[in-house]
């Protein structure tokens, strides 16, 4: 019979894996996570940020075990199905099993250009023989239960531990990311939060779910502020975003040219995808050419309309070389979301679409750069400060704290919009050659509608007026 395994982790020290968890960790589908960086390209800015989804997933498993132990000691789990209790740590362990190479970046592409969000891919990996066998050893319906927990669709009262306002994933990644980036922003009072966890009854519906005691609200506030600071200083750092836009353009060009297929993104590791892109780029660049020298000579004209896959291969080779040697796009202009006029920028800015690419290519021409040399970046995370949970007040009343907050309890939701706007920055990057654009010109472009910009593109008008 399998025995538990003890791991030493730099963040949580001793982590004990149950026999079921060991079987899952040993599966090839899970071992793949060793080769997917937790923070994508942040290591190009913070050299220590080479930790992986593997490390993080085991940390979330550890916190789930601790949370259940805390709840169990207080008798809060007596009415919870034992199988559901057993599934929660397994769901915590597997919550990132579907991630793409370099984590979240490719999810910023248009939805139809990728097979789906990483959580939507979970079922594929749970069905792999080694993982499925480990899950079915817990219960015959464990695969379905675990997938429902990961995707936030479970009716279990413990759903909130895996996906929700207070899920353990947030606690773990904030602390781990801060540790390995070497920044002081991700501190979270983990012990206080775990001790404050409760299973509470919703006064409106009677359903039971994870909540917190009022004494843990201050620790919850610190978690939310830590998240804001990490987004502003690490996840959305200008050079991290520069590397991210370059990577997205590289993959997007390969997809658009048919040099890779959507399904080839699923189950790949960071290095495997980069190798595949390099091979496909090389093959496309040399296609129908007498030799590599001919292909190199064609680079200047590779952006012509009839260059096809060969042009994409040349661009991809340029982007790959820039990423390998950390020659990242440079900021030409930036402006905080809070300083954008009117109702803010158009929706077209938030996803990488063919329309946005057309705008970027026109900007490149206006700035005297080759097509593909300009990048607009306006990262979005609409649920950054989402808060929806039950709180047990000192007087014994159970109240739901939502986006509007609750008098006397927590004021953070009421300033969430302002924090979000402060963290978000609209940037224009240029590759190879630095350009300087007045921020107000970028702001004027951003607030124009897609319809207005389409007319300007068709008429050959200037976009950065």
Describe this structure in words.
- The protein has 465 residues and is an alpha+beta fold.
- Strand 3 and strand 4 form a beta hairpin.
- The chain has helices at residues 19-25, 28-31, 53-73, 82-94, 122-126, 129-136, 142-150, 159-162, 168-181, 190-196, 217-235, 238-256, 270-286, 292-297, 308-324, 354-366, 412-423, 439-446, 450-459; strands spanning 5-9, 13-17, 197-201, 208-213, 330-336, 374-377, 389-392, 398-401, 425-430.
- It has 19 helices and nine strands.
- The chain has a domain at 8-212: Orthogonal Bundle (Hypothetical protein af1432).
- Strands 3-4-7-8 form a four-stranded mixed β-sheet.
- The longest helix has 21 residues, at 53-73.
- It is globular and about 70 Å long.
- Helix 4 (82-94) packs across helix 7 (142-150).
- 46% of the residues lie in helices and 10% in strands.
- 43% of the residues are buried.
- Fraction of residues in helices? 40-55%
Broad CATH class of the domain at 8-212: Mainly Alpha
CATH topology description of the domain at 8-212: Hypothetical protein af1432
Beta percentage is: 5-15%
Question: How many H/I helices?
Answer: 19
Alpha carbon gyration radius: 24 Å
Order of SSEs:
EEHHHHHHHHHHEEHHHHHEHEEEHEHH
Strand order of the largest sheet: 3-4-7-8
- Which superfamily, in CATH terms, is the homologous superfamily of the domain at 8-212? Hypothetical protein af1432
Question: Which architecture of the domain at 8-212 does the CATH hierarchy give at level 2?
Answer: Orthogonal Bundle
Low-confidence stretches: 290-306
Shape: globular
Class by alpha and beta content = alpha+beta
* Biggest pleated-sheet summary: 4 strands, mixed
């Amino acid at each position: 019979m399998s025995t538990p395994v003890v791991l030493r982790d730099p963040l949580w020290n001793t982590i004990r894996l149950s026999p079921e968890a060991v079987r899952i960790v040993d599966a090839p589908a899970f071992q793949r996570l060793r080769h997917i960086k937790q923070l994508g390209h942040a290591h190009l800015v913070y050299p220590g940020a080479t930790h992986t989804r593997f490390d993080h997933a085991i940390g979330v498993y550890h916190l789930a075990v601790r949370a259940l132990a805390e709840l169990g000691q207080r008798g809060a789990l007596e009415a919870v199905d034992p199988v559901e209790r057993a599934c929660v740590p397994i769901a915590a362990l597997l919550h990132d099993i579907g991630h793409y190479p370099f984590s979240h970046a490719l999810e910023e592409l248009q939805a139809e250009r990728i097979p789906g969000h990483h959580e939507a891919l979970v079922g594929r990996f749970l069905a792999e023989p080694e993982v499925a066998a480990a899950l079915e050893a817990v219960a015959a319906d464990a695969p379905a239960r675990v997938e429902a927990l990961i995707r936030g669709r479970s009716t279990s009262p413990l759903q909130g531990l895996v996906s929700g306002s207070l899920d353990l994933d947030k606690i773990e990644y904030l602390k781990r990311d801060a540790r390995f980036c070497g920044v002081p922003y991700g501190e979270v009072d983990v012990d206080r939060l775990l001790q404050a966890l409760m299973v509470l009854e919703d006064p409106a519906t009677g359903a039971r779910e994870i909540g917190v005691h009022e004494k843990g609200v201050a620790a919850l506030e610190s978690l939310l502020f830590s998240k804001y600071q990490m987004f502003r200083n690490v996840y959305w750092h200008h050079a991290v975003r520069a590397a991210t836009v370059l990577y997205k353009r590289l993959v997007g060009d390969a997809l658009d040219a048919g040099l890779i297929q959507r399904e080839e993104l699923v189950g790949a590791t960071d290095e495997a995808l980069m190798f595949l892109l390099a091979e496909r780029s090389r093959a496309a660049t040399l296609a129908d050419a007498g030799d590599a020298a001919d292909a190199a000579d064609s680079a200047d004209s590779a952006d012509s309309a009839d260059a096809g896959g060969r042009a994409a291969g040349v661009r991809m080779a340029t982007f790959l070389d820039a990423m390998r040697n950390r020659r990242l796009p440079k900021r030409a202009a930036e402006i905080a979301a809070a300083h954008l006029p009117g109702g803010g920028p158009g929706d077209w800015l938030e996803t990488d679409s063919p329309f946005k690419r057309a705008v970027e290519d026109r900007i490149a021409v206006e700035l005297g750069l080759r097509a593909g040399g300009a990048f607009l970046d306006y990262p979005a995370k609409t649920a950054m400060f989402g808060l929806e949970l039950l709180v047990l007040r000192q007087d014994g009343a159970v109240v739901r704290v939502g986006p509007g907050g609750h008098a006397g309890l927590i004021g953070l939701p009421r300033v969430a919009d302002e924090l979000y706007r402060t963290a978000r920055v609209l940037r224009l990057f240029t590759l190879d050659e630095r350009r300087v654009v007045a921020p107000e010109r970028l702001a004027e472009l951003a607030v124009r509608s897609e319809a207005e910009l389409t007319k300007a593109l068709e008429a050959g008008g200037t976009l950065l007026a």
